[in-house]
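Recap from last week: sequence in, structure out.
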Amino acid sequence: MDERIVKFLKKMHLAGVCAIDNEGQPYAFSAFYAFDELNFSLLLASSDESSHVKFLKNSKLVAGTVALDTKIVGKIEGVQFQGVMSEASASEREIYFKRFFYAKAMDPKIWCINLEKLKFTSNTLGFGKKIKWERSDKI
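Predicted structure tokens:
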């Protein structure tokens, strides 16, 4: 993965994610995430009772965005991604709690979005400049 994408994902903390609901329709949610730069995944906390986690029984495929909130056109940056969401491992949980240490007291369930495809747009590299990445070792 390009180091500029890694730097961006490490800097940000909020993702908009879309799962598929029981009627096959898109269902969007927002989540704080920690980026696992070794495995190229986003780690997030969510309850088994949340709608989006329940929808994982339909499909573990998700898509989403991470974007810098700015009105300055020359500073616009963001990522569009596709991935597979599943329960996080113990080591992935530790990555999440390292970033959001205060969340550990609530003992939330941690989930992993294993990134499969990603497009990074950054106007800091030139207007509309895009860098694409795709996982070479597919799940």
